Amino acid sequence: MQRGSFQWMKSLNKSIILNKIRTSGSISRADIAKETSLTPPTVGSIVKELIEQGIVKESTQGISQGGRKPTMLVINNEEFFVIGMDAGPKTVDFLFTDLAGEKKSEFSIELEKELSNEAFLSVLIDGVEQMLQAVSQPKEKIIGIGVAMHGVVDVENGIGKYAPNLHLENIPIKRVLEDRFDLTVKVENDARAMALGESWFGGWEPTRSMVTVNIGRGIGAGIVLDGTLLHGEYDIAGEIGHMTLDLHGRLCECGSTGCFQTFASGPSIEQRVKEALVNGEKSRILELVDRNLDKITGELVYKAASEGDAFALQIWNEVGTYVGVGLTNLIHIVNPSRIVLGGGVANAKPFLMDAIHTAISERGLTNEVKQTKVEFSKLGKEAAALGAIALLLVELFQLK
User: Which pLDDT score is estimated for 307?
Assistant: First the structure.
C-alpha cells in the first residue's frame, strides 16, 4: 500500500471506527455510531469506504433489538499485510504477517562483523526484496514496513542514531526504505518494539501499564502506559541497561562504569565465568568447552546449571539478584502493573525467578510493590519483530 493510501486510511474518524471494530471483535454500524458519538450517516459513509478498500468486511448478523437483525462488521485481517524486521546486532530477522499478527513467512540474514551504514542498509533492502518475492503479494496489500532497531533511535525521523554493538551511527533507515519501496516505514528501538509486540500479541490480560525488559547482549526496556509507548524527551526512555548499579564497577561499552548490563547481560555473564575459571574455579563448564574458554556461552552456562553444576547455579543466582535489583529500581520509578522479561538471558528462567523475586521482596518500598508481577515473554525471540509489525497497526488503528 503506497504511503498516500496509508495516510488516507488513518484519518481521524476512520481510525476511530477501525479501532472500535478491532477492539469489539464484531460490531454493527448502529453500535459504532452509539459508542463513538459519530453520526450514523458519517459511520455509514466511512464504513462503505473501508469495505471498498478491503480492510473491513461484513460478517454474520447480530441479535435483533426489535427490527431487522443488524449486519456485523469485522476487520478483514487476512486482506492486508505488514513486513517487520528485528535488526541487529548479529542478524536481521524478517517477518511477514497479516493484520492479526499471523505469520505468513520468515527468514534471517546474518550481519557481517564489520559494517558500514551503506552495507547495513543493503541488508535491509535485500531482505525486503526477498520477502516481497517470497510472498507474491501486490504492494497495495502491504500496509508498510516496521523496523525494530538495535540501539538509540530517532523515532520521528526513523534514524538509527547509535547502534553500539554494530559500531554505526546516524543510519537513515526510514528515508532509504521509503524511497526504495514507496511504503510507509516506522522505526523503533528494539526493546520498545518488544514491549509493543507483547502488548498487542502476547495475550496478556489488559493492564494500564506494562514494562518489557529485554536481557541479551545488552539490556533495554519498553514502557507501555495506557496503550502508549513511552519515548521520553530525546528517545532514550527505557535505556535501563545504562542505569548505574555500582559506581566502581566494570567499564561499560557506553564509557561509564557499573552499568546494569555489566552485571546481567549475556557478554557480562560470559566474562565473569571466564575470569572465575582462569582463577581456578572448578566447574563442569570446563568440560563442556574442552577447556577452551573462548567457547563459553550463556547457553553452556545454562546447560551446566541444568546438570547441577554448583558454580553455574551460583552464577545464575547472582544474575537473578542483579536483575531483581534493577527491576526494583524500575518499579520505584514507573510502578507498572506487570513486567515481562525477554531476550537470551531470560531463557534461564528456571534459575533466575527465585532470586529475582527475593531481590524485589527485600527491596520493594511497599507490600504492593513487592508483589509486582514479573513474567516471561510469551512471544520469545519473535517479540521485537512482532513489535515492528505492531508499529504499523498502532498507526492504523489507534488515535494519536
Answer: 95
